[in-house]
Amino acid sequence: MSVLRFDEAVLPNGLKVVGEHNPLASSVAIAYLIETGGRDEDEAEHGVSHFLEHLCFKGTAKRDAAQVSRDFDALGARYNAFTSDERTAYYGAVLPDAVPELLELLSDMMRPSLHAADVDVERNVVLEEIAMDADSPASTAFDRARAAFFGAHPIGRPLLGTTASIGSLSSADVAAYHERRYRAGNMLVVVAGAYDWDAVLAQLALETRDWPAGDDPRAHPPLALGSGRLEERAPRITRAHVAVLAPGVGRQDPRRVAATLLARAIGGADNSRLFWSLIEPGIADEASLWHDDAEGFGSFGAYLSTDDASVERVLDVAFGVFEEAQRSGLSPEEWASAQRTLATGLTLRGETPMGRLVTLGSAYLERGRYESVREVVDEVLGTPLEAGLALLAERPFDRALRFVLRPESPVSAS
Amino acid sequence: MTVPTEPFSDLTLPNGLRVLVEPMPWLPTLSLTLQLRVGSVNDPDDAVGSAALLAEWMQRGAGDLDARAYAAALDDLGVRRGGGVGRETLTFSAAFLERDAAHVFPLLADLVERPRFSDDDFAGVRLLALHDLASIDDAPSQRLGEALVARYFASRHGRSTYGVREHLEALTPERVRDDAGRRLGPAGAVLAIAGGGDVRRVIELATAAFGGWQGRVAPISAPEVRAPHRHHVMAEGAQVQIGMCDAAVAPGADGWYEQQIAMSVLDGNMGARLFNEVREKRGLAYSVGAGTRLVRGHAYTVVRAGTTPERASETLEVLLEQMRLLGDGVDEHEYARAMRQLRSSLVMQSEGSGARAGRLASDVLHLGRPRTLDEILGAILAVDLERVNAFLAGRPEPTFTVVTLGPRDVAAERAA
Fold first, then answer.
1. Residues A120 and A249 in one domain
2. Interface of B with A in 341-370 (CB under 8 A)
3. What is the C-alpha to C-alpha distance for residues B334 and B261, in angstroms, rounded to an integer?
4. ipTM above 0.85?
5. Listed range (A26-35, A322-331, A384-393, B407-416) with the worst mean pLDDT
6. Which residue of B10, B98, B122, B234 pairs with B197 in a disulfide if CB–CB is 3.0 to 4.6 A?
7. What is the pTM of this model?
8. In this structure, are residues B277 and B374 in contact, taking their beta carbons and an 8 Å threshold?
9. Are residues A277 and A317 in the same domain?
10. Phi and psi torsions of A295, nearest 5°
11. Minimal Cα–Cα distance from B233 to chain A, Å?
């Protein structure tokens, strides 16, 4: 009954283009995914990926910053961008009649002018973002935990950069990074919804004809994972925030679905072992476990939040839960629950073109092929419990890194 | 091109529950929102936070199933759930595959018809509520949000949905069970459903599952606001949080759609005035925004920004100035952008089943009836630029209640 069609092409400059056509959709969503992020930065460039993401909205040879914003708005577009350690994405969705304009605008933004004056104004915005992050103890705890867990690998640095690193980046630094990483062969365009494939391809060929071809292979410096327990007392906070990181599997690893499922069974939202051991009895107000897959390696992450006096108890209970799972495994019922709720979530996200974009593009980048929602759901439902048990048998939580961020002094009840 | 829309079904069961079904026959999923008129606003005066406890306790087992068995039953069917307690509604939302509807509906009905309310679960529920309340201290933006609403409303609408610590500590299982008996009934509640499957079958399943639900309901008093004033909350932190509130035109009243267009000019997107003036031109803040918030019978404008202390005073100036300038009207370009923005975001929001179910429930709360997408689009498209500017010219000067939170009292510095 599927009405969906997969489209795929590579332009002469190496730009990859994929699409999932859905004639029943009311909108079209378009994304540029660039295979670059925090892990691709030199030490001197720390924070540049995210800074550049901001600057791509600040003007091009054709438009100044205000014009970029006005043009998005004139299209009635919903749009945004994000940067991760692995990838930078710019995306938008419009009604089908505005596709050519959106495609032109997003393509133009991939060649930002990076004027020094714009860089200075935007620097303040990023510094405000860093300040906002500094007021989030959970972010602070994970920044510290990642530094200790990933060690000297660039993925251990905070994605936003630091006040010092952002303060010292010049427009020439940003331009050099852009020149190196935003090459056609390092990018993927994804379209989803009710689009016209031939028109999209013809327009993209025109818009991107002068772009530098080729790519810039990602460096893979050695990774030595840290473990153990670290603790810091911080001013201005009233609760204890615990970040846990443990070794997982990489994004090309066939076990990544099993890793996601076992994380849900142990620490998913409503009905997981951490929920019943920590949330239900009211020992902690946050206790969750998830799995992140990166290129070449992955990690389990857990977040625990409680009052300062309960830190030891919460850590004991959480690591008791991990140990029990490593020792005795998971039940078929727990596994099936994790499979079914994940499958529903994937199906729901597939309802809209905007929801499809990133999963569609990521699958293509990471595994080099089209995965329909149906195939992804089938893969989830077909992943056997044994795959999860095999991962647990490697005892990843024995090598966990715990970072405890807690108040400077016991806080009186207010 | 428009979103395929089909008229929805709208019926009220004999017990007073309103059931709305909007068909989206091309989807394999169904989304459902169950909205009860229970919230902090009708918490007993000496038990603020009781609704928060109720919302959590209800999910600790229902019907013949204890907490774990209940959660497992939903998970077996792959049901994604959400919701929570607000000022004046208690909401449960669920999404699942349409083919499982016959199994899911009775389980969800048990939540409200046969909650277990076991004494054994109560201590954990209350501890969790106390944790949630305490955790606001580490979330400055949320803390400002709570303080702003508390300062703006004179009525019980200003209460925190997290409750009051002393009240939570004093609550007993008996008190909360009594409270449930007082207000967990079906009259005035809404069951909104959107998604795939045969509509008649969905209505039959909903009626069979929820038709037997009985119980009393508690009234909700009308909202009242205080005279505009300024207030600062001293708090350590890297940022100052700024929030402002002023009364706005309520849904259904004259000017509602004009106001929506004007707010879209202010904060529809990155080209909108606030983002442009505060972030783009001056680099004053990373987050800035404005919107219209609703409680039943009252709408209010909320303007927010978070900035570093050195920039806070200027940020506040710019925000107030922008709100004043809106009275001078919007130009044709701004109008055209806002219209296109509203139109396409309405269409795109309607592509997902969860958003549609949520809108049906919200429409009933604030307008007394659901609207189709075509009705909303038609009403917005009928408002021309002259109407928007006539509306803005006729609005009184804004008089904001301003609340700041952070290491420096910005409002006082500004007044000095």
1. no
2. 341-345, 347-348, 350-354
3. 9
4. no
5. B407-416
6. B98
7. 0.87
8. no
9. yes
10. -70, 115
11. 14
